[in-house]
Design goal:
The complex is a heterodimer of chains A (228) and B (404). With 228 residues, chain A is an alpha/beta fold. Chain A has a single domain, classed as Rossmann fold (3-Layer(aba) Sandwich), CATH 3.40.50.300. Helices cover 35% and strands 22% of the residues of chain A. Chain A is built from eight helices and eight strands. Chain A has helices at residues 47-55, 77-87, 103-112, 119-128, 144-156, 174-191, 202-205, 214-217; strands at 4-14, 20-31, 36-40, 62-67, 70-71, 88-91, 162-166, 194-199. The longest helix of chain A is centred in the C-terminal third of the chain and has 18 residues, at 174-191. Chain A is globular, with a radius of gyration of 17 Å. The termini of chain A are far apart. Chain B has two domains: 2-46 and 268-399, no CATH class; 51-255, no CATH class. Chain B is built from 14 helices and 13 strands. Chain B has helices at residues 2-13, 15-48, 63-70, 83-91, 118-121, 150-156, 207-211, 234-247, 257-267, 269-296, 298-310, 315-356, 368-392, 396-399; strands at residues 55-59, 95-107, 110-115, 124-126, 129-130, 133-136, 145-148, 163-164, 167-168, 186-192, 202-206, 226-231, 251-254. In chain B, the strands form two sheets. In chain B, strands 1, 2, 3, 6, 7, 8, 9, 10, 11, 12 and 13 form an eleven-stranded mixed sheet that branches. In chain B, helix 1 (2-13) packs across helix 12, helix 2 (15-48) packs across helix 12 (315-356) and helix 10 (269-296) packs parallel to helix 13 (368-392). The chains are: A alpha/beta (228), B alpha+beta (404). Chains A and B meet through helix 1, helix 2 and helix 3 of A and helix 1 and helix 11 of B.
């Protein structure tokens, strides 16, 4: 059974002129447990919307999203939050670290809403990503690459079955991007997590065996105006 | 751990507004507790402060004026009691003890009161407590000797052996040359131990000293200003009240002293209410400042809140964290409010003691120490629900950036 199963997923927005603009129209998509898939797509192709839908941050207009056998569409917000906290790790392009919290606290918070606080695991995760001496540093005291590693550690904190990575290397230089990607893949492999990564960076996408284009699976993306 | 961590970090992130808001709450809490403590303690203390006497007899006037004059040494004497009236009172079987008082002079603002030595030897000003001489001895009738209350001695710098000339009248103008000084020279022969009563700020001399002071009307040399009365039983008070206040028209019998003082506080009850209202308004404004401070920071917090939600935080946690933050600011403010309270009440106690001799205890436990901080925290928590609802409704997707 697939870890992630998507059927007839549709999401659109109403444009200022009142016209409904479809952003996501995916007839079918699935991801097996432990599988790593990268989706290629230019800016504005709906990558973030797609991941937000899977994470339950956005609700679709129609369709079905099943994660680990649980139907996300139609699920009440409380259970969606719970599922996001326990089953999904999210790595954002801009890391979205909480600036007022230390590295360790960022990771602890990643755990706290799902599996529960495990300080020794949080410290181990930060050691694993090479930040053993930065546990009590605030994000602003870290380099961009180090912040990305904190974001990876936080995403892994709750032992998620599915890791969503939205342009995770978009803010990194090529060397850091390569290193960061390796870290994400290794961490997912160690944890047994499936990885769904979206990016437009060809160098990053080359590292994956399967790189479907978002336009291939998202019928709406074919007609979307691309962002500059 | 999550909620305390969220609150602690948020307070730290918005440190300046936290400090300013907590300070305004501390002022509100301190003011509220002080107003309440002062009015309740003042009322209790003044109502109980009867000096061990049941009643005051004086010239026809208000009972309050008599009590304030004879017990608290604050008001002017409304007139005199003739010797025959004093003798009749003393002879009444209803009366256990009578001490005459004569007023009319001061020394640098401290009232000089003529009395008899049994005021100090036989009378208990509180249950089981008599006036005690700390240094020296009691004055002797027929001599120009003075016994000084502890507070007056301290402020005037009087010791045994100090000589002074009384000033005429009850008031002393420190910045003019208009004060008229009598020729008589009195010598301090004793200083009383502190009694925490208005007697502490009095210069006591033999009653004949006031009656015969140069410049006083010789025709009234045998009169007294008031008489302090101890009754044999409470029922005697009704009889004397009937005799002097209802049947007579020359004298006023102020009884019981506590009730007379209670009437004073009832009369100025509106002033209490105004003070309390002001204190509550300050508390409301302070609680509103919590609302404004958190609400104004919501734009800056929006992204953090969205991140928390993306990590799986439920709306309820976000809501609770904001209310808890408002409560935490109020708790810090209330804790600091105790410092403000004790400082204000101590200042007020010094003022009340210097003006009346009555002692207010700043550290006397009061229920206001519980309900005022609790009310303040409750108000702040209530105010915190406004930004909390705003936080509750933060849209996660649009607050997370950028999109790819």
């Amino acid at each position: 059974m697939s870890l992630l199963e998507i059927r007839a997923l549709q999401k659109g927005y109403r444009s200022p002129d009142g016209q409904r603009q479809a952003v996501i129209d995916i007839p079918e998509f699935s991801l097996a447990a432990g599988q790593a898939v990268a989706l290629a797509g230019p800016s504005g192709s709906g990558k973030t919307t797609f991941l937000h839908l899977i994470a339950g941050i956005l609700t679709p207009d129609s369709g079905s999203i099943r994660i680990d056998g649980q139907e996300l569409v139609g699920m009440d917000e409380h259970h969606r939050d719970r599922l996001r906290a326990t089953a999904i790790g999210y790595i954002f392009q801009s890391f979205n670290l909480l600036q007022g919290f230390t590295c360790l606290e960022n990771v602890l918070l990643g755990m706290s809403f799902g599996s529960g606080i495990d300080r020794s695991r949080a410290e181990a995760l930060l050691r694993r990503v090479g930040l053993a001496d930065r546990l009590h540093h605030f994000p602003r005291q870290l380099s961009t690459g180090q912040q990305q590693r904190v974001a990876v550690a936080r995403a892994m904190a709750g032992r998620p079955k599915l890791v969503l990575a939205d342009e995770p290397t978009g803010n990194l230089d090529p060397a850091n991007a390569k290193e960061s990607l390796a870290l994400i893949r290794e961490s997912c492999a160690e944890n047994g997590s499936a990885l769904l990564l979206v990016s437009h960076d060809r160098d990053i996408l080359k590292a994956f065996d399967q790189v479907p284009s978002l336009a291939d699976i998202n019928r709406a993306a074919r007609s979307l105006p691309l962002r500059a | 751990m999550t909620l305390p961590l969220l609150v602690r970090r948020s307070l730290r992130q918005h440190l300046l507004s936290t400090i300013v808001t907590a300070l305004s709450l501390s002022l509100a809490g301190g003011l509220l507790m002080t107003v309440w403590s002062l009015k309740t303690q003042a009322r209790q203390t003044f109502e109980r402060m009867d000096g061990g006497w049941d009643a005051v007899l004086g010239a026809r006037s208000s009972k309050l004026q008599l009590v304030l004059n004879a017990v608290f040494h604050l008001e002017a004497s409304p007139g005199n009691i003739r010797p025959a009236d004093l003798a009749a009172l003393a002879a009444s079987p209803a009366v256990k003890a009578v001490v005459p008082l004569a007023m009319g002079d001061n020394y640098q603002g401290f009232r000089i009161v003529g009395t008899s030595t049994n005021h100090f030897t036989d009378h208990e000003f509180a249950e089981g407590r008599r006036f005690r001489v700390r240094d020296g001895r009691l004055f002797e009738d027929g001599y120009r000797e003075a016994l000084i209350g502890a507070f007056a001695a301290e402020k005037l710098g009087f010791k045994v052996g100090t000589e002074f000339k009384p000033y005429h009248g009850l008031n002393y103008a420190s910045n003019t040359q208009d004060n008229v000084q009598h020729d008589e020279v009195y010598v301090v022969v004793g200083v009383l131990e502190p009694s925490n009563t208005p007697a502490d700020r009095v210069v006591w001399i033999p009653i004949a000293g006031i009656q015969n002071m140069t410049g006083h009307d010789p025709a009234t040399a045998q009169d007294v200003s008031a008489a302090l009365v101890k009754l044999r039983d409470p029922a005697a008070g009704f009889r004397l009240d009937q005799l002097y206040n209802k049947q007579g028209d020359k004298l006023t019998f102020a009884w019981p002293i506590g009730t007379v003082m209670a009437q004073l506080f009832d009369k100025i009850g509106w002033f209490d209410s105004v003070l309390t209202l002001v204190a509550w308004l300050v508390a409301l404004v302070a609680a509103a400042s919590v609302l404004a401070s958190i609400y104004n920071s919501m734009s800056a917090r929006r992204r953090d809140l969205a991140i928390l939600r993306a990590l799986g935080a439920r709306r309820r946690i976000i809501f609770t964290s904001i209310v808890a933050e408002a409560s935490a600011i109020a708790t810090i403010g209330a804790a600091c409010g105790f410092l403000v309270h004790f400082a204000l009440l101590y200042g007020a106690a010094v003022l009340v003691r210097s003006q009346t001799g009555v002692v207010i205890e700043p550290f006397q436990p009061s229920w206001v120490w519980l309900w005022a901080p609790a009310s303040l925290i409750g108000l702040a928590a209530l105010a915190g629900t406004v930004p909390a609802f705003k936080a509750y409704g933060v849209d996660v997707a649009s607050s997370l950036s950028p999109e790819s």
